[in-house]
Amino acid sequence: MPYADLHVHTTRSDGSLELADVPAAARRADVSVVAVTDHDRLQPFDAPLSERDGVTIIHGIELRVELDDETGDTDGSGQRVDLLAYGIERTAELESLTARIQENRIERGRAIVDRVEDRLDIDLDVTVTDGFGRPHVARAVDANPNTDYDYEDAFEHLIGDDGPCFVARDVPSFEGGRRILAAAAQLVSLAHPLRYPDPDGALEYAAELDAVELAYPYGRSVDRTPVERAIERYDLLATGGTDAHEETLGVAGLSEAEFSRLNLTA
User: Fold this and answer.
1) The pTM is what?
2) Can you name the residues that pair with 5 across neighbouring β-strands?
3) What would the pLDDT profile of 134-165 be if each residue is shown by its tens digit?
4) 72 has pLDDT over 80
5) Mean per-residue pLDDT for 182-188?
6) Residues 247, 252, 204, 190: is their CA dihedral positive or negative?
7) Do the Cβ atoms of 221 and 2 come closer than 8 Å?
8) 31: nearest Cα among 10, 11, 57
9) What is the dihedral sign for C-alpha 195, 199, 205, 210?
10) Would you give the DSSP letter of residue 37?
């Protein structure tokens, strides 16, 4: 079982775990360190690292950014990737960026809900607020008695990137997001690089970061050689975590020795 799970979501974004229940979930999984990395949202923490009920909690964030397209622009045509930042201390720029993103998330969430309700002729009965994301919509579709779609079907047939109810959202550029995170956090890592349509292209951008997520439960057989090669080529640290959206932690993560190499401090 991993010592540190550095990729965990709560109900403050699209997870089902309450923030206050993170220490108990960590103890159940025999995990000593948890990074709370809700999407595009800061946590109500006073310090980059803190102790809560015997568990070290790291103030983290997962921020979606857009890579430059072939022309060097970020016009919506470039690949989008996620950056994980750890050991955050609030800055005015990061607070302003996350506030703008949350406003756009709410607008986008309402648009997706409207499209799904119109297409299926149902009422999803959801409240669109800070942290709202597509998993909230998928859960509501799954729970609705007037549809045969389950959670996975909702993504596959309705709200996935190519779905009829999909609505894109505005995201910062890679360089803009990286710069703001680097000023606020102790460590910035590329999340789950083998999930992207062009993993090699995404890994090239890791050269400008501190780390890349190596331990990750992809749910399929993957060749981690490109990630290991990038770590060696760019002299990166390795991070890892469950990407938990439910209440089970410790599916993936780092050993105590691996975590100590990150040198995160309170």
Assistant:
1) 0.89
2) 34
3) 999 999 999 999 999 999 999 999 999 999 99
4) no
5) 98
6) positive
7) no
8) 57
9) positive
10) -
187-190 and 211-215 beta bridge pairing: parallel
SS3 assignment, position 197: coil
pLDDT of residue 254: 98
What is the Cα 266 distance to its own chain's centre?
22
Distance of alpha carbon 131 from alpha carbon 57, whole angstroms: 20
Distance from C-alpha of 243 to C-alpha of 253, rounded to nearest angstrom = 10
Residues written for the chain: 266
Provide the CA 38 distance to its chain's centre, in angstroms.
6
Is-contact 85 181, C-beta < 8 A? yes
| Region at 249 (left for phi over 0; alpha for psi -120 to 50; beta for the rest) | beta
138-161 as b/e: b if 16+ CB within 10 A: bbbbeebeebebeeeebbeebbee
What whole-number distance in Å separates Cα of residue 162 and Cα of residue 141?
Answer: 18
CA dist., res. 89 & res. 191, Å (int)? 20
**CA 7/CA 254 separation, integer angstroms:** 11
Distance CA 245, CA 256 (A): 23
CA distance 40 to 62: 6
- The percent of the chain in helix, strand and coil, each rounded to the nearest 5, is 35, 20, 45
- Report how far residue 34's alpha carbon sits from residue 167's, in angstroms, rounded to the nearest whole number: 32
